[in-house]
Amino acid sequence: MAFQPSIPLDHIENFEEICSTTRSNGVSADYLKCKLFSFSLGDKASRWLKSLPAHSITTWDEYKAAFINHFYTKQRSVSVRNKISNFRQANNESFYEALDRFKEYIRDCPNHGFNEGNLWNIFYRGIDHKYKLSLDTASNGNFMTKTVDEAKVLIENLAASDCNNCPDYDRSSRTTTSSPDSFQMTELKNMMAQVLKGQLKHINAIEGMSDANEDPSRECMGDFSNEANEEDVNYIGNYGNKGYNPSYRPNPNM
User: Fold this and answer.
1) Are residues 105 and 202 in the same domain?
2) What is residue 220's three-state secondary structure?
3) How far, CA to CA in Å, does 39 sit from each of 8, 32, 33, 120?
4) Which of 30, 44, 143, 228 has the fewest CB atoms lying closer than 10 Å?
5) What is the helix, strand, coil percentage profile of the chain, to 5?
6) 44 CB contacts (<8 Å, ≥6 apart)?
7) Report field, pTM of the whole predicted structure over 0.85
8) What is the per-residue pLDDT across 91-147, written as a single tens digit (0 to 9) for each?
9) Are residues 123 and 64 in the same domain?
10) CA gap 141, 126 in Å, rounded
């Protein structure tokens, strides 16, 4: 399992996958990873690990954060971060393909510095108008009033619906008298039906949530639309203090 400095994140993921196949009674998975990690490294990375002050790293999350922060070059971080901030859905790119590409950018730059609300705000701004309309319609007119968790549910539902509708369907079924606009509207209505159907599953949970002023996690997507430009301009150099989270879970302090 040779480590390539150009792709530290892939090395971490491969190492974790291998470790997941190993079990030891009475030993936690994180402790096992900490003990085995040095054996997965080549000469350069091994020297870096040994150069760290004794007992300066005690958890697996700290190992990952330090490793990625050291080997993930600033140039690569800036490049991928620019892809995130300038994201646009490509011509002839389906919604679910655009979402997959956006998620890949996030995965490729774990120290991007954006909070989760800002990420989905960027994604919403970059998608085609018809998909913005779908999300707005499913949000009673304004997608930006949704909380981050609610926004993610709508986006995932729309992607699932788009994926189901996109595979090679029989285009010969279209009548010659149907205009492109009428077909697009029918397609949009079908997609919206799927999105709203998925949203209904979450109504009970949403109704049970406390008032937005009492629960920080209820902040709306619109709260992130005018984030300070300073965050977008400055390169995030203190990634090691944030910790690496491969699951991209919502930030509880967001």
Assistant:
1) yes
2) strand
3) 15, 12, 10, 38
4) 228
5) 60, 0, 35
6) 5
7) no
8) 999 999 999 999 989 988 777 889 999 999 999 999 999 999 999 999 989 999 999
9) no
10) 18
